[in-house]
Amino acid sequence: MARVVVNAPKSAKRGEVIEIRTLAGHAMETGFRRTQTGELIPRDIITQLVCTYNGVEVFRAELHPAMAANPLLTFTTVATESGTLEFKWTGDNGYAATQSASITVT
Amino acid sequence: MTFFALLFAVLIALCSTLLTAGEIPLAERRSGYELMSRETRAMQDDEATGPAAFSLLDGEALWNRKDGPAGVACSSCHASPRSESGASPRSESGASMKGVAARYPMVKKAGVRKIPINLEQQINVCRTERQKTPPFAYESRELLALTAYVARQSRGMPIAIKRDEAAAPFIAAGREAFNRRQGQLNLSCAQCHDDNWGKRLAGSVIPQAHPTGYPIYRLEWQAVGSLQRRLRNCLAGIRAETPPYGAPELVELELFLMYRANGMALETPAVRP
Question: Which of B37, B58, B81, B267 has the lowest tally of Cβ within 10 angstroms?
Fold first, then answer.
């Protein structure tokens, strides 16, 4: 079950810098840990988050092992026009999650 | 006769003042929130993307999930918080869970006896009696999520434990446990949390032990956990015996702690270091 949360302002003034907070529920297994019997636990992490604003990419993050579980990524962008922010997480083992948030710019 | 009655009354009054001597006056009560660092407070204030966010989301999903052979969800009997304002056909049957968490642990009938049960146990009573399904295990993701979701609806409301005839002996038992020295370190809860709050135990500030935000997300655990988990932690810390989850003595202590925090606002789900 892909669980993601996005917290972005619903409205903003044109040209304003808005803060976007994203949270993805994921164990972020590093691939370096071993079980009690010594077997390696395979890596299972989110590798990428892409945010597009009305189709234009405004933020991209590549994630690597040693990121905390449930990664919280906060970034800013400039509110240019009304529309939607689309978020897409991808990761190991076919992990994929999407979320969108609409914003009204005045 | 009247003389003895008077003497008795004076003795009772004296005893109660002695008992409450070490306790923290209302004006000096501090939630653990006030003793936390600015960063940890910011985590708690950010509810939408805070560390307990997924627990609340899971709780909401479980609340509305039909379960058991009867095929009923929590929301089948209790109206969901969203339908609170709307004309819900079920609004008579207790509506939302607002304010409920502020009254737990509550003394309820269990068979022939009346015993205090906490919110987790009440959820499991509903599961076994209404949904006819096996109860959730203590500290399971599901039980914590449901408890957090229910208790969240009382956020900001004052804790209101009634000290009525049924509850009084259990509160007294909890108070006795709170003030009793135990464990290899021979410490009572009160010695830290009544007498030395605000000072430091190693690097951590000693809080007043008001259970205002349970279930909490505790940074040390990297997870959501219940008040009983916290109590067992403390007991292990003073090297005392740790009663199993759901043990009557833990519930009594919970009841006393909530009673002790009467009037303080609930913060569920709180974040603690």
Answer: B37
Give the residue with greater pLDDT, A60 vs B15: A60
- Edge-first strand order for the sheet with A96-105 is A11-12, A96-105, A83-91, A46-53, A56-62
Quick one: pLDDT at residue B80?
A: 59
For residue B22, pLDDT beyond 70: no
Q: Assess whether the previous peptide bond of B169 is cis (omega < 30° from 0).
A: no
For residue B52, what is the domain's CATH number?
Answer: 1.10.760.10
Q: Which residues of B are catalytic?
A: 234
DSSP A98: E
Overall number of domains in chain B: 1
| Minimal C-alpha gap between A22 and chain B (Å) | 7
Look at residue B34 and tell me if it is in a domain: yes
Would B5 be classed as within a structural domain? no
What whole-number distance in Å separates Cα of residue B144 and Cα of residue B216? Answer: 9
B177 within some domain = yes
Q: Give the three-state DSSP class for A52.
A: strand
Q: Give the domain range for residue B240.
A: 25-272
Residue A19 touches chain B, beta carbons under 8 Å: no
Substitution target from B44, B47, B54 for chain A, most A beta carbons within 10 A:
B54
Distance from CA of A28 to the nearest CA of B (A): 13
Model confidence at B21, in pLDDT bands (50, 70, 90)?
Answer: very low
- Asked if the C-beta of A4 comes within 8 angstroms of chain B's C-beta atoms, the answer is no
By the CB < 8 Å criterion, does A70 face chain B? yes
Mark yes or no for CB contact A70/B51 under 8 Å: yes
Q: What ipTM does this complex have?
A: 0.76
Using an 8 Å CB-CB cutoff, list chain B residues near A25.
Answer: 54
Chain A interface includes B141 (CB < 8 A): no
pLDDT single digits (tens) B45-88: 988 888 899 999 999 999 999 988 888 999 888 875 554 444 44
What is the C-alpha to C-alpha distance for residues A50 and A98, in angstroms, rounded to an integer? Answer: 10
